[in-house]
Amino acid sequence: MKEPEYEKAKVLIPEKETVLEGYTLTTDYLITQDKKDALSRLTAYDLNGKFIKEIELPETGNVSGMSYHKESNTVFVSLSTFTAPGVLYKLDGKTLKWTFFYQDKPPIDTKNIEAKQVFSPGYVGTTASFINRGGVYAVACLRGGDEYGENWHKDGMLFNKQHTFDDFISAAEYLINEKYTNPSKLGIRGGSNGGLLMGAVMTQRPDLFKAVICSVPLLDMLRYHKFLIARYWIPEYGDPDKKEDFLNILKYSPYQNIREGFNYPATYFKAGENDTRVDPLHAKKFVAAMQNNPGQTNPILLYVDFDSGHGSGQSIEQQIENMSREWIFLFGELGMK
């Protein structure tokens, strides 16, 4: 029996500097999803791959979902904005015209919140409580992510990891220079790899921050690869068992860069005893070193959740309780009601 002949695959859209996050086909168009300046972008091509136009989103937001309904030739696009977790629009597959379809109505008051895009939007969620008390909430866009494709990622990994910390520090300095805040009123938070970020910037530039929330963090980077699944992250951070990588990691590893006699910002550390990704030993040994550091007068707190792991496995009640602890800590340190 003769094998069927298959048409050779051809490139419709050449590889670009950004990461292709999704695509869909309509009767007339191939629509792609990627990011430009950390914001979702939809682009229309004809079915032969010829560029037609960028499709302007109906409002500032990030595309969190996109699906095609063949019978009506409609693309359903879900947007996450600063003030709403989900707004669903219909995009006509022939005319590319937008129509509002549905919006979530969470029990969070966002009507008095003004959103300004310096770069990266996302639903504020429970942060609305902070903003409604007079807070300014900013999200930093850092090298090491995928916002500008693989080169942007590579520029914040391995021997370029310090770039990630430099970008965050620059973002903090921007907020201070633009008079959004000052070091006595600036709180920061991050978890997991973002916990490493918190540990690095608070040890490198403690003068910039008043309070830090550091969740399920990587902090002892010279031994991170010896516990749980962390050995799979060697391509991202490097192998501390190799001299060149060891010397590079030593420069920024938060645990090894605690300076004796220095008073670091007030920090709330959170770890999950059942964490299968980041061993809670990171938070525990870092807190022990900080609390026993001569000169440390700001509070260094550790909360260990014995009922959850890497931020998962929590009931709604537990999530509310954990978030409440974080906000109470932050409000207290920043002098907010």
- Point out poorly predicted stretches: none
CATH architecture of the largest domain: 3-Layer(aba) Sandwich
- At the fourth level of CATH, the homologous superfamily of the largest domain is Alpha/Beta hydrolase fold, catalytic domain
| Helix vs. strand class | alpha/beta
The top level CATH class name of the largest domain: Alpha Beta
Oligomeric composition of the shown chains: single chain
Strand content: 15-25%
Q: Any overview of this molecule?
A:
This protein has 337 residues and is α/β, with parallel strands linked by helices. It has two domains: 22-101; 140-334, Rossmann fold, CATH 3.40.50.1820. It contains eight helices and twelve strands. It has helices at residues 128-132, 150-154, 161-177, 193-204, 234-237, 243-250, 281-291, 316-334, and strands at residues 22-25, 30-36, 39-45, 51-55, 62-69, 74-80, 87-92, 98-103, 187-191, 211-215, 266-272, 300-305. The strands form three sheets. The protein has a four-stranded antiparallel sheet with strand order 1-2-3-4, with no helix packed on it. It has a four-stranded antiparallel sheet with strand order 5-6-7-8, with no helix packed on it. Strands 9-10-11-12 form a four-stranded parallel sheet, sandwiched between helices. It is globular, with a radius of gyration of 23 Å.
